[in-house]
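Running co-folding for adenosine-5'-triphosphate.
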Amino acid sequence: MASINHPCPPGACDYEARHNFRAGGRRLEIETATLRVEETTTMKQMKSDVIDGGEEKGIWLTWKDVWVTASNTTGKKKKKENINNANGSRRKTILGGLTGYAKPGELLAIMGPSGCGKSTLLDTLAGRLGSNTRQAGEILINGQKQALAYGTSAYVAQDDTLLTTLTVGEAVYYSAQLQLPDTMSKEEKRERAEFTIREMGLQDAINTRIGGWGIKGISGGQKRRVSICIEILTRPRLLFLDEPTSGLDSAASYYVMNRIASLDRKDGIQRTIIASIHQPSTEVFQLFDNLCLLSSGRTVFFGPASAASEFFASNGFPCPALQNPSDHFLKTINKDFDDNQDIELGLAGTQRKPTEEAIEILVKSYKSSDLNQQVQAELAALSTQGNGMVENQRGHASFHTQCIVLTKRSFVNMRRDVGYYWLRLVIYVAVALGLATVFYDLGMSEESIKDRAALLAFVSSFITFMTIGGFPSFVEDMKVFQRERLNGHYGVTAYVIGNTLSSIPYLLLVSLIPGAIAYYLPGLQKTAEHFIFFCIVLFSCLMLVESLMMIVASIVPNFLMGIITGAGLQGIMILAGGFFRLPNDLPRIFWKYPLHFVAFHRYAYQGLFKNEYEGLRIAGKSGEYILRNIWQVNMSYSKWVDLAILLGSIVVYRVVFLAIIKGTEKMKPLVSSLFSGPPKRSNHIMVNPYATPLQEGAT
Ligand SMILES: Nc1ncnc2c1ncn2[C@@H]1O[C@H](COP(=O)(O)OP(=O)(O)OP(=O)(O)O)[C@@H](O)[C@H]1O
């Protein structure tokens, strides 16, 4: 039997799960052997990257007495939450005075029950806390207070934010092209991408689409591994992983964690790796150098992972035989189900709180333990022996390469995402057919004066209005951008250029086909010049609405709120455009000045009206007369000026989009520094029936 060849390692109590993967294990071992052979060229390349980039320094990360509070969104003080109300404000304490360190060449695991603050600790260390949080305490990198430059560290977030239309291979390869320096050839980048994909055991899914809502693609566990692949492509010196093994079976978890833990060995650079993790198997647990065990934002244990069992045993909580130690730790400190247990045991309403007592014993014991003293000593030593400022030595693809790759990737995504353009094209064609039948063959009667304008106003306002239908796709796009941007994959300008250029062919297509139907069947001016002008105005309006929606997506990244905001803004601009209420009849305050001049609809209406009426004589009236006296069009400049204003507005909208993203990035650290400061005692009272006296450092 295969089990003879794969005996369960001693001390591993979760052997059943792994033995279920015996065959898989054998296959993976063979793959590992193949990888070992193939590693040589890729590893050489990785090494030379490092040498090219200069001397790589390891990163020592230390944190002392870190507190994080968040505004209480419910507004109500919940019974068991740690809510600060000493100064009248309601803030929930998420992290209560954590101290620890992470060293190069070591893997620090953060463990604890769900909601204990693992992700918050990772976010705090990585400088990614949300705007409703406040932090206090000292976080040092190589002994100094410094912000890590984009790209020095990588963060694998809990959610897998990926472009669902790409295949696994494409997602990783595009990312390699964006992140790896131009000194590497395309072939080398492809090799690195393929190597990393195999490292994460994704070779069989390389040509499978990632998939998402409505499209079945790779599994959740495979998505997790794609996210990890993308972030380890450049072998960052500081790597944060938020639950890297969620969704993975125990064998895959082991291989993934093993590859992550052994990143150092591949190129000889010592990496600092911090991972929050749920339910590690015994084998995975053995990969950890240090363990930080949290409960309700407090440290239960920090120290060598191998010392945790002894610490629990010495406090009266020995790990039962044949039980996975990590399961035992979590079970001992998880108090979420105490009430259920009480109900099951018929003790509801009594004072039985064994888990809370256990936690208090462990927290107190840890505080007074040698382990804690050792952490303080390490901290003191690390803060003096650090290597100073960390330079971002990671080479990037050039701006030019970033623009080209982002344009290509976005083009492919737009082509494959039905919701981006294709669905809109179908709806536009249907609406254009509707318009063509309603306004068919307008002729030259008196009524056609009004009908022509109604048709043109409908096309330039309502057809373009429907662009908001693409908003969900814009939001998904923005989410991927935000993840990649936070990890320093590319610049904001390159993204905006890529996004703009890639959309042009589709917008031309959706202007031309429905445009031709809605233009020729009603019998508008037939020359090519008039039709081309009409299409360019339609294209400009679509581009403007799309730019407006991208601006909205960057500010309001929520489907419903974004669509409501975008629709509201457009509705107001349409009203002020000068068709539904003529320019001279618009109320002067707000609607005429400034809105009529700001709303791009004014230039679209006036340009299209001039394009249609100029040169015509309808029911005895000249086109110029109709424009000036009926539609109150400003005739002091030509239709081409209206078009130029529309095209210029596209540039302005895109620059605004760029400025908002850049501004948000610049403002975030400022806002966080405003809200962070020396810890105040009143800010961190942890209301708890077993509360220990506050440490002095937290005052
Ligand atoms: N920005 C925030 N605003 C308000 N509450 C927050 C915020 N961030 C985290 N919290 C709260 O802090 C607690 C810890 O959250 P966190 O995500 O860090 O837990 P976790 O240990 O990573 O949980 P899980 O293992 O389930 O992912 C939770 O109760 C969460 O609701």
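Result summary
Residues 159-217 form one domain.
The longest helix spans residues 639-675.
Job closed.
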